[in-house]
Each structure stands twice: as structure tokens, then as C-alpha cells.
Specification:
- The complex is a heterodimer of chains A (462) and B (103).
- Chain A has 462 residues and is an alpha/beta fold.
- A six-stranded parallel sheet of chain A has the order 3-2-1-4-5-6.
- Chain A contains 18 helices and six strands.
- In chain A, α15 links the parallel β2 and β3.
- Chain A folds into three domains: 76 residues; 182 residues, no CATH class; 168 residues, 3-Layer(aba) Sandwich (Rossmann fold).
- With 103 residues, chain B is mainly α.
- Chain B has a domain of 48 residues.
- In chain B, α2 runs antiparallel to α4 and α3 packs antiparallel against α4.
- Chain B starts with a helix and ends in a 17-residue tail after the last helix.
- Classes of the chains: A alpha/beta (462), B mainly alpha (103).
- At the A-B interface, α1, α2, α4, α5 and α9 of A face α1, α2, α3 and α4 of B.
Chain lengths: 462, 103
């Protein structure tokens, strides 16, 4: 590789560092992302000038196809469906890394066949990339299916699952050993298949509410496979970029898990231990107090302090704009109104902020959980729109609940709580919410957008 | 220093840098950060290009599939991250919604 190319790769690696740095601050985030994109494009252009590539026309066509699919997919996706889109992008990246490693294995196999001694470290890295890249691919596909409601979001567990997982894991180690001992193609393919199976078995038992953390973890996995692939190809920018993502992704996974009060091992293996499956005994035909939009409008209109707790149901109904209008009417009446944003409101940490920002809710009205939890006690009415798990007191009181230990918004301390709900169906985590049956709770049933529209009209008419 | 130790050095230093640069991220930015990091590992496209430039027959087909997948990861990842972050930028003159006029 010529020196100039290595220098350009160094510049790109620095670009990725600056991109991550930028992405972690609100003011610099967009620039950071653009810097990362620029570095990635430059790095991919470089080999055309030094590497003496064959098949250039075909390569360019393949890049064009991928670019169009990626760009159109990213433009078309609804903001509410963005988490599963990220999962899918991550999965194809892992798949690409596994394919690259399989092709490198073929080179090593050819070299070994003519008696060349291949460095064992290369073979370890190759086996790692094939196995973990395949895990990332199939695991991401399952997370996509869970979030897209193509399959149940509840933990899927069957009796032999721990043994199937353990068996596939051991087999993966053994076959990796075969690859390192002697690079042969069949072993690489077996390794890829085992990786696919492991990815499925890893994600199936994860409950819906924990899926975002798994996306983040698989993201870190893909980063590490890219790093290992970079070592195999002896390419510094791949190694550095992959390692950066692997390290920051692992750290981010831990941060997210902490924000939800969960440990990563509990998320992955909790359902296997049987601890987190739910007491399904409670039927939801217990009496609740429900009211119409007019009653709730009066409640809101004459309250001094209102806190709105938006959840994923709000986003699904595309009701952010109607909610913002309602809040503006209340503010105009002199009511104090804030939005309480749980760290994992929506489907991912920070997802709700994105959705409300899209609806042009002023940033200052969004309060983070730790800042607002002390205020519920002095709040007249809390309006919970399409949220459930993040206000479920079971997280504090019921050790057997799958969300036990997750920090929640202390909505139950407010004087009145109004839930806007489509039905009595439990939330994403699949557990009953005791708060719904409290005497201070009022339920307003209906589609969030429709109901908020009626509520808005009734409040304006006060 | 042997070649492999040099690579190990790159790896270990990158681990520390990767953790250090995002250590202070607020939970608001977790999702865009994850998405941006996701786009960065789309750089495997570079690896796929290098492999495809040296392949023929069935291997070339596999390499081209890898290029398509990696390009989806990279381009889609950066575009979707940018879309998310656009939501955070303040509009120069936030247009007021139409007031009054009960429905």
C-alpha cells in the first residue's frame, strides 16, 4: 500500500473519532454525523486509486445498488419505525463482514493447499468474524421481526433452549478450532450456519422492552467483527473504525441498560432462568374508572400544574402534533405544563425526544426523568398518552415483574392520573399496570389522535 | 515490535478512545449515537471492495453481495442518523401554529 493511501486512511480514522465525539453532544451531533459520512466515503474511494482492482464496473454497480436501497429505505422509514431500521442496517453490516471473512478464508485455504503456512492469528480473527458477523445478522433480523410486529414481542422460550444455545456455542468454538488448525472452506460455512442459529437463539428469549439494548449490543458485535476483518485484511482504517464502534457500542449498551435498571446478562438470559416470565393470572376485567373527553377537559382546564407523559402509543397514532396543540391551549390558559420523558420512552433511549422534536415541541418543555420525578407530588393532573410500562409501579413493588428495578416516572404520586389508552391491553413488556385500577386514575379510551382531537376541542370550548 | 503487536496496540488504543469519546453522552442522544456508530461500521464496504477487486466466479458474486449489504449499512445508516438529528436543530423562525378558531 502506498504511503499516501495509509496517510489518507489515518485521516479517515481520525474522522471517525471526531464523528463519535460530535455525535455525543447535542450541538455538534449533526456535524459529527456528516464528518463520519465524509470519512467513510473518502476511505472507500481510496482503493480505486492504488489497489489495482479488477471488476471495477461490477463493484460500482453493486455500490450503486446498495446506496439506492439504503438511502431510499432511510428516507422512507417512519420515525416511529426507526429502531427496527437501525437493527436492519446493523444486521446487513454484520452479514457483509461475515461474507468478506468467508472469502478471505478461501484465500487462506488456497494458500494452505500449496503448503504456505498461514499465521494462526489471522485464522482466529477470520473465524471470529464469520461466527459473530452471522450472529449479528440473524440476531438483527429477529429484533427487526419483533419490533415490526412480524412475530410476538414477548420472550420466546422453549424447554431445550438453553441446551440448544449452549450446544451451538460449543460447536462454534470447536469448528473455530478446526478453522484455525487448518483453513478449510466447509468449516467456514458450518461456522456461518452455527452463527446464524446462535443469533436466533440469543434474541428469541429477549422480551420486547429490552430489544433496543440488544440492538445496541449487536451493533457493538458488528463493530468488533469489522475490526477483526480489518486485521485479516491488514487494513488500519477498518480495524480502528470497527474497534471504535465495538468499544463505544459496548459502553453505550451498558449505559442504556443502566438507564433501564437492568443488567445485560439479565436481559439476555433472564427469560431462560424463568425468573422474568409473568404471573398471567390477573385478568383485565377488573373495574376501572373511565370518563369522556369533556370530563377530562375540565380536569385539565382547571388544573394548575399538568405533566404529560408521552409513550410509544402516541407515536403509533401519529398524535404528537395534536398533543402539542393541546398543550399550547393549556399554556395559553395559564396552566403549567411539562412533558416528562422517560429515558426509554418510545422504543429506544431518546426515541421520544426525536418524535416530539419532529412535532416542534420546544426542547425546554421536555424534562428528563430525574429532573421531574420530584414534581409529581405537586402535580394536579398527569396525562399519560400511550405509555404504560414506564409508569408501572410494579417496577418498584413487584420483584417478580420483568420490569422490576427499572426506574419509572412516579406518576402514582400525582393527585389525578388520566390514561389515554386504546384498550386494557398491557404494555410492551406484557404486564398488568396496577395504577390503572387506583381510585385516582381515570381512563379515556380510544385512538390517541382521535381522543386528543376531541380533548383539544373540548378544552378550547371551556 | 512484531507486526502482530503493532496491530494489538492499534486495537487497545482504539478501545480506550472509543469509550472515552462518548463517555459524556446524554440519554437524549443515545439513539442517534447508536445509529451513527452503526453507520460507521458500514466501512466494511471498504473491505468488501478490496475483496471483490481480487475475486472471480462464485467468489465474485459473494463479494458483490457483500458490497451491496455493506453499502446499505453505510449509506442508510448515515442518512437515517441525519434525519433523526435534523429533528433536533432549531428552525430559524419557528412558525406559530394557527391560534384560536375553535373547531
Amino acid at each position: 500500500m502506498p504511503t499516501w493511501a495509509e496517510v489518507v486512511f489515518l485521516v479517515c480514522a481520525v474522522g471517525f473519532i471526531l464523528a463519535l465525539k460530535g455525535l455525543s453532544g447535542p450541538r455538534t451531533a449533526r456535524t459529527g454525523n456528516l464528518v463520519g459520512a465524509g470519512a467513510a466515503v473518502v476511505a472507500c474511494v481510496v482503493p480505486f486509486f492504488y489497489a489495482d482492482l479488477d471488476n471495477v464496473a461490477l463493484i460500482l454497480v453493486a455500490i450503486a445498488v446498495g446506496t439506492v436501497i439504503g438511502a431510499v429505505g432511510a428516507q422512507r422509514v417512519q420515525m416511529t419505525q426507526m429502531p427496527q431500521m437501525v437493527a436492519l442496517f446493523n444486521g446487513v453490516g454484520g452479514g457483509a463482514a461475515a461474507l468478506v471473512a468467508l472469502l478471505e478464508l478461501e484465500h487462506f485455504a488456497d494458500a494452505a493447499a500449496v503448503g504456505v503456512d498461514v499465521d494462526a492469528a489471522y485464522l482466529v480473527a477470520t473465524a471470529f468474524t464469520i461466527l459473530v458477523g452471522a450472529v449479528s445478522f440473524s440476531g438483527s433480523v429477529i429484533t427487526f421481526a419483533k419490533l415490526q410486529d412480524l412475530m410476538t414481542s414477548r420472550p420466546v422460550v422453549f424447554p431445550g433452549l438453553p441446551f440448544a444455545f449452549g450446544g451451538a456455542f460449543l460447536a462454534g468454538l470447536v469448528v473455530s478450532g478446526v478453522v484455525v488448525d487448518e483453513p478449510v472452506m466447509w468449516a467456514g460455512i458450518v461456522l456461518a450456519v452455527l452463527g446464524l442459529a446462535l443469533g436466533v437463539l440469543l434474541v428469541l428469549p429477549v422480551g420486547g422492552a429490552d430489544v433496543p439494548i440488544v440492538i445496541s449490543l449487536l451493533n457493538a458485535f458488528t463493530g468488533l467483527t469489522v475490526a477483526a476483518g480489518g486485521y485479516v485484511l491488514q487494513n488500519t482504517v477498518l480495524l480502528v473504525a470497527g474497534t471504535l464502534v465495538g468499544a463505544s457500542g459496548t459502553f453505550l449498551t451498558l449505559l442504556m441498560a443502566r438507564a433501564m435498571g437492568r443488567s445485560v446478562s439479565n436481559i439476555l438470559f433472564g427469560a431462560l432462568k424463568g425468573g422474568s416470565t409473568l404471573g398471567a393470572g390477573e385478568a383485565s376485567d377488573r373495574p376501572v374508572r373511565s370518563a369522556g373527553p369533556d370530563d377530562v377537559a375540565i380536569l385539565l382546564g382547571y388544573a394548575e400544574k399538568v405533566i404529560v407523559v408521552p409513550g410509544y402509543g402516541l407515536a403509533v397514532a401519529q398524535a404528537q402534533h395534536t398533543l402539542r396543540e393541546l398543550v399550547e391551549v393549556l399554556l395559553a390558559r395559564g396552566t403549567e405544563v411539562d412533558y416528562a420523558i422517560h429515558p426509554v420512552a418510545g422504543r429506544m433511549p431518546g426515541h421520544m425526544n426525536v418524535l416530539l422534536a419532529e412535532a416542534q415541541v420546544p426542547y425546554e418543555q421536555l424534562k428528563e426523568m430525574d429532573d421531574i420525578n420530584g414534581e409529581f407530588r405537586q402535580t394536579d393532573v398527569v396525562l399519560v398518552v400511550g405509555a404504560n410500562d414506564v409508569v408501572n409501579p410494579a417496577a418498584r413493588t413487584t420483584p417478580s415483574a420483568p420490569i422490576y428495578g427499572m426506574p419509572i416516572l412516579d406518576v402514582d404520586q400525582a393527585r389525578q392520573v388520566v390514561f389515554l389508552k386504546r384498550s386494557m391491553r398491557p404494555g410492551f413488556a406484557g404486564i398488568e399496570n396496577e395504577l390503572l385500577f387506583e381510585p385516582t386514575t381515570t381512563l379515556l379510551f380510544g385512538d390517541a389522535k382521535d381522543t386528543l382531537g376531541k380533548l383539544l376541542a373540548a378544552t378550547k370550548a371551556l | 515490535m512484531s507486526n502482530d503487536v503493532t496491530w494489538l496496540t492499534y486495537f487497545v488504543l482504539s478501545v480506550f478512545v472509543g469509550i472515552e469519546v462518548i463517555a459524556k453522552v446524554s440519554s437524549t442522544l443515545h439513539t442517534p449515537l447508536m445509529s451513527g456508530a452503526n453507520a460507521i461500521h458500514g466501512i466494511i464496504l471498504l473491505g468488501a471492495i478490496l475483496v471483490a477487486g481480487d475475486a472471480d466466479g462464485f467468489a465474485l458474486v459473494v463479494a458483490l453481495v457483500a458490497i451491496v449489504l455493506a453499502a446499505i449499512n453505510m449509506v442508510g445508516g448515515f442518512v437515517v442518523t441525519d434525519r433523526m438529528l435534523q429533528m433536533f436543530t432549531r428552525k430559524p423562525a419557528a412558525k406559530r401554529p394557527v391560534e384560536g378558531g375553535g373547531a
